[in-house]
Amino acid sequence: MSRVFVTTTPTHRNATDLFADRWASDLSELAPGLPSGGLPGFRADPRPGQAAAHLGVNGRLDGYDVLELGPLEGAHTCQLEALGAKSITAVESNSEAFLKSLIVKNIAGLNRSTFLLGDVSRHLEAPGPRYDLIFCCGILYHMLDPLELIRLAAARTDRIFIWTHYFREERRLRRHVTHPVEHEGMRLSLHELTYRDRKLATFWGGNREKTRWMELPDLIRVLAHHGLSETTIIADAPDFVNGPAVTLAAKRPGAPPIA
Length: 259
Prior knowledge:
The structure is a single chain. By secondary structure, the protein is of the alpha/beta class. The chain has a single domain (12-251), classed as 3-Layer(aba) Sandwich (Rossmann fold), CATH 3.40.50. 24% of the residues lie in helices and 24% in strands. The protein contains 7 helices and 10 strands. It has helices at residues 12-16, 47-55, 75-82, 95-108, 120-125, 146-154, 216-225; strands spanning 65-69, 87-92, 113-117, 133-137, 159-165, 177-183, 186-194, 210-213, 230-237, 245-251. Strands 3-2-1-4-5-10-9 form a 7-stranded mixed sheet, with helices on both faces. The radius of gyration is 18 Å and the shape is globular.
């Protein structure tokens, strides 16, 4: 990375301008005067609130230790802190997105969130604590092995919130290859796509050249197989832009309350 000296008056805008025209988020939600036009993840996006409503206590996450998979630029992280989470560990594989998250953390004054740079599956398979909630928004459909991610996540939590695209035969994906697979005795189908935009500055996909989408019934089956069998479909959008999408909450029956 080239060395850059900024000689103007110090502002948060100077920091966000390090990645000018490469932000996914609408930063004007975060503070006046910051770039607008991106996705409204800091306030308007309902998904962190949906996670709290379905998997929290009285619509809050007070006392929860949360693992966030793929925070991108930290917009949802801000909401999770505002919802009362005791701690948030946010794991991001995209190095530029990780640095953007640190800028957001500084601007928003987040003090209960830690951003880590690395692969989410490698984080989950390494020795570590259990989490009261795993927030898995916009990442499962970017995984080459989504089954591994679910298995590893279920071993570390009793509650998982997922927003993901899924494969639906009625809306066939372009240039996809279907792979019949077996996962712990279950016969499933994964639908493989190759990224065509990895060289773009605004690429926010997975860390492999390919990804594999699950079918919605298979997703629910796999969650149940790994103990997260109490599933609530919060929203199902089969005609969503870029492919069918589902918002769901899954938990383990009899999960102990959060102290």
